[in-house]
Design a protein that fits this description.
Elements lengths: L2 E8 L5 H10 L4 E5 L12 H6 L1 H19 L15 H26 L2 E4 L1 E4 L4 E6 L2 E12 L3 E3 L12 E2 L1 H4 L8 E5 L3 H12 L4 E5 L11 H13 L2 E4 L3 E8 L2 E8 L2 E7 L1 E4 L3 E3 L32 E3 L10 H15 L13 E3 L4 E6 L2 H6 L4 E7 L4 H6 L5 E7 L5 E8 L2 H13 L4 H5 L10 H10 L20
Parallel strand pairs: 1-2, 1-6, 2-3, 6-17, 8-15, 9-10, 9-15, 10-11
Antiparallel strand pairs: 4-5, 5-6, 7-16, 12-13, 13-14, 18-19, 19-22, 20-21, 21-22
Helix pairs in contact: 1-4, 1-8, 3-4, 3-6
The structure holds flavin-adenine dinucleotide and nicotinamide-adenine-dinucleotide.
């Protein structure tokens, strides 16, 4: 006999666990199945994000930034600290503690909300049944609705043998036992840049990023990407575009790597190599053949705008479906599907999902890039305000970067906001709200912001859309000086 639920969710990452809690809040009898085990072999909720993704990477970014700042950034404030030492073991233990507190927090939330947690690997069968395997044991759960949230795993390259010691994926790169002196990274995307920054700040002498594409961060606004590339290069990240690995071999504790760029083939040797070339959906074996689950050519689960699969009562959310592979995107889909199952109206606004790269300076954006607007032939105005003109940024000693607002030329509606600079990961929320509420550059320009605060730069960028920023010379807003209408 199968255990019966109203909703069964496969996967307890930020998509699945959020869906589970909201289903339970809405009075639905809910079970959430997850296979994850922590390094001690104990069940751990939270998926990639909490265990080996967002949270441990941000813990290390924070620790490494504090280390680098203590070593190099305090002197200008008149603070002397003597010799600064690094205890990598302690840093890693802190990271593990942060992860554990949060994963245990999800278990508590499940208990408090009455979500049944089922440990094991799930497979979707026919007629809304899920078979859960744990060792030799198998249980079958049946439900009126099934939400698939199996997440994603790192892409592997056929030419590179990931041995887990010298050549690792992002998970291995979060747990090096010592700082590699020469670090190679394949892929200059989000993970490559964030983890490359961590190890460079902690003392890696050489960090080389081999990126296959011709342009740097092509998904970001190119004005932002240009400054980012210059800044990261200045920090010692050696970014080599147009570079493809030909061979990679581990011998005598060294990684010998050959890559090709426009100038021909080059040999390099590294102590450690991180492969960070994207992620793929965890859909191998997720459904039995008789379930009839439809996947696309890359293995993503086929869903409509509201995350319905073509199978009645079966939904899919998070990294395993189309759209950006971001925790908050999956969580919003989880909330939407829970509400829809409960018979409520719900949707996700895919146009207002923010992106953040947690480097120094931080990069964040929402909405359309300038290159996308140009390609679509949309007439827009641009207002740019540099942090060098912000009193707060000066007081902080953190003036690199700018905020750019793109607004529709006719309606003044904000179409995109792009930032590079201090606390962009926090500042971007203002832009998301503005776009979500259909705000115009004028709306922001007429809003009062506290002084002195970094958020004033968002205010001034909005003023700059109409050539009216106070703290920059008019020439700087040249592109934006035409009045609307
Ligand atoms: P996941 O988090 O992958 O969770 C899926 C869960 O389902 C896992 O626990 C898995 O074990 C389980 N599962 C899979 N198949 C089965 C099965 N058959 N049976 C039972 N259980 C199953 N995103 C951000 O938004 N911000 C960041 O700062 C950020 N940083 C990141 C840093 C790194 C190093 C990495 C790797 C990723 C980062 N991401 C970040 C991406 C983010 O982690 C993912 O977008 C997010 O975790 C996806 O959530 P999900 O719930 O879809 O899947
Ligand atoms: P990514 O797509 O950001 O970057 C992968 C990079 O590798 C790309 O620039 C790609 O051109 C390059 N590449 C692909 N094949 C290559 C090859 N053979 N040789 C050299 N370069 C190659 O993917 P990622 O950095 O692995 O991150 C995976 C996902 O996790 C992303 O979708 C991202 O959204 C998510 N993530 C988000 C955050 C965040 O929100 N701050 C942080 C980390 C990861």
């Amino acid at each position: 006999m199968a255990d019966k639920y109203q909703v069964v969710i496969v996967g307890a990452g930020p998509a699945g666990y959020v869906a589970a809690i909201r289903c339970a809040q809405l009075g639905l009898k809910t079970a959430c199945i997850d296979a994850w085990l922590d390094p001690e072999g104990k069940p751990a909720l939270g998926g990639t994000c909490l265990n080996v993704g967002c949270i441990p990477s941000k813990a290390l970014l924070e620790s490494s930034e504090q280390y680098a700042h203590t070593r190099q950034g305090l002197a200008e404030h008149g603070i002397g600290v003597g010799e600064v030492s690094l205890d990598l073991d302690a840093m890693m233990l802190r990271k593990l503690r942060v992860v554990k507190e949060l994963t245990q927090g999800i278990a508590q939330l499940f208990r408090a909300n009455g979500v049944t947690h089922v440990q094991g690997r799930a497979q979707l069968g026919a007629e809304r049944c899920v078979v859960v395997s744990q060792g030799e044991d198998q249980t079958t759960l049946s439900a009126e609705h099934i939400i698939l949230a199996p997440g994603s795993s790192p892409v592997q390259l056929p030419t590179i043998n990931m041995d887990g010691q010298y050549v690792v994926d992002s998970t291995g790169a979060l747990s090096f036992s010592e700082v590699p002196s020469r670090l190679g990274i394949i892929g200059a995307g989000v993970i490559g840049l964030e983890l490359g920054s961590v190890w460079r700040r902690l003392g890696a002498k050489q960090v080389v990023l081999l990126e296959a594409q011709e342009s740097f961060l092509p998904i970001a606004d190119q004005q932002v990407a240009k400054l980012a590339q210059r800044s990261f290069t200045g920090q010692g990240l050696d970014i080599r575009l147009n570079s493809r690995v030909k061979t990679c071999e581990v011998k005598d504790d060294q990684i010998a790597l050959r890559y090709q760029d426009n100038d021909g083939e080059h040999d390099m040797s590294f102590d450690r190599l991180i492969v960070a070339v994207g992620r793929r959906p965890n859909t191998d074996g997720l459904a039995a053949d008789e379930a009839g689950l439809l996947l696309d050519q890359w293995g993503f689960i086929h869903v409509d705008e509201q995350c319905r699969t073509p199978l009645p009562g079966v939904w899919a959310i998070g990294d395993a479906v189309r759209g950006p592979m971001l925790a908050h995107k999956g969580s919003e889909e989880g909330l939407m599907v829970a509400e829809l199952i409960a018979g409520h109206t719900a949707h996700v606004d895919y146009g207002t999902i923010p992106s953040v790269v947690y480097t120094l300076p931080e990069i964040a954006w929402v909405g359309q890039t300038e290159q996308a607007l140009r390609a679509a032939g949309v007439a827009y105005r641009s207002g740019v305000f540099p942090f060098s003109a912000s009193g707060r940024a000066r007081a902080m000693g953190n003036t690199e970067g700018f905020i750019k607002i793109l607004a529709d030329e006719k309606t003044d509606r904000i179409l995109g906001v792009h930032m590079i600079g201090p606390q962009s990961s926090e500042l971007i929320a203002e832009a998301v709200i503005a776009i979500q509420l259909g705000g115009s550059a004028e709306d922001i320009a007429l809003t009062v912001f506290a002084h002195p605060a970094l958020s004033e730069s968002f205010h001034e960028a909005a003023q700059a859309v109409h050539g009216q920023a106070i703290h920059i010379a008019p020439a700087k807003t040249r592109k934006a000086r035409k009045k609307p209408g």
